[in-house]
Structures are given as structure tokens and as C-alpha cells.
Design brief:
By secondary structure, the protein is mainly alpha-helical. 88% of the residues lie in helices and 0% in strands. The chain contains seven helices and no strands. It has helices spanning 2-40, 44-67, 72-96, 103-118, 123-144, 148-153, 155-192. It is globular. The relative contact order is 0.11.
Length: 193
């Protein structure tokens, strides 16, 4: 347990920079789509509301990360809340805003790849969150979706992207863990001399 905490503390600064980057890029893209949607959206009020909420989430995370000194537990909690809220916004936008049939699948795949490979919360929680997301996607596709047949047909695609994103998260975490272990061994050998 002590080594695990040391590992997360050693990567915390990098993880904070990554979270800042993702939240600022996400806010920029959301603002870009807010502008574009003014010219192409059907249900503009609902879409503006949901995109604005997404933009605010990105900005709040960025401001929080820039202003507050994060510890490991707070960073992990922030990553869980951040990724969960983005998934929820994608489902709500698809349901309420009259989005094209490809919107939900593209959003979920993008969020899976970016959030599971880049955010620094532990892999076991990424796996759990991804499994829950997939079950929610299946339920939404079958019971709630305005594009049920198309979303249901994309369930294999989503499962594949879930698997790839978790595998990417595993590879990134394994690389970081091996680097930490090598640094730890190097420090230990230097201390012996």
C-alpha cells in the first residue's frame, strides 16, 4: 500500500497537467461546437443548455485544478466525477437535443479513448466505470434512445472501443509503473553505494 501511494504521488504532477490540458481543450472544443450549433441545430434551446453545462464542467475542472493544490485522493475523485459527468452529458444531449444518429456513438468512443488513456485514476476504477458505461449504453439503446435500432447495432463497436480504451489505459499505467519501479531501483542502488 505504501508503494502504491508513492507511485501515485510520483505521477500526480504529470496527471494534474494532463487534467488541465484535457479540460482546457475540451472547453475550447465545446465552445467551438456551441458556435457551430447556432447554424445547424434543430432543438437549439436544449442543445445550448446541455453544451453550456458541458462547457461549465470543463471550465470548473480547469479552474479547480489551477486553483487548488490536489492530493492523490482528490485528483482521483475529480477524475471520476469529471469523466462520469461527460458521459452523462453525452447521453442527455442525444436524448433531448435531437442530435444526429452518429452523435452518441462518436461521443462515447471519443470520451472512452481520451479519458481511459489520459486521466490518471486507477485502472481498476477505469474498468469498473467502463463496464457500467457499457451496461448503461445497452439499456439506453434498447429502452430510451430515439435511434434505438442504430444505437443497438453499434453496441459491438462500443464494446470494442471499451476494450481498446481499457487496454490503452493498462498500457499507459504499466509504462508509468515500470518507470517508477526503475527509478525506485536506481535510487536504492545509489543509496547502497
Amino acid at each position: 500500500a505504501e508503494k502504491v501511494q508513492a507511485y501515485y504521488k510520483s505521477t500526480l504532477q504529470f496527471e494534474i497537467y494532463t487534467l488541465k490540458f484535457i479540460s482546457l481543450i475540451g472547453a475550447s472544443y465545446t465552445l467551438f461546437f456551441l458556435i457551430i450549433d447556432q447554424y445547424r441545430a434543430n432543438r437549439l434551446y436544449e442543445l445550448d443548455l446541455l453544451r453550456s453545462i458541458q462547457f461549465i464542467i470543463f471550465l470548473l475542472v480547469a479552474l479547480f485544478v489551477f486553483r487548488v493544490k490536489l492530493n492523490v485522493a482528490t485528483h482521483h475523485l475529480l477524475c471520476y466525477l469529471f469523466s462520469s459527468s461527460l458521459y452523462a452529458i453525452a447521453f442527455l444531449t442525444d436524448f433531448y437535443a435531437g442530435m444526429p444518429v452518429f452523435f452518441l456513438t462518436n461521443s462515447v468512443c471519443l470520451f472512452l479513448i481520451v479519458l481511459n488513456s489520459a486521466l490518471g485514476h486507477p485502472l481498476k476504477f477505469k474498468i469498473g466505470q467502463t463496464v457500467i458505461l457499457y451496461v448503461i449504453y445497452l439499456y439506453y439503446s434498447i429502452e430510451l434512445s430515439p435511434h434505438s435500432s442504430i444505437h443497438t447495432s453499434q453496441s459491438i463497436n462500443i464494446l470494442l472501443n471499451c476494450s481498446i480504451s481499457v487496454f490503452l489505459g493498462y498500457l499507459v499505467e504499466r509504462y508509468r509503473l515500470l518507470t517508477f519501479r526503475q527509478q525506485d531501483l536506481l535510487i536504492a542502488s545509489q543509496n547502497k553505494n
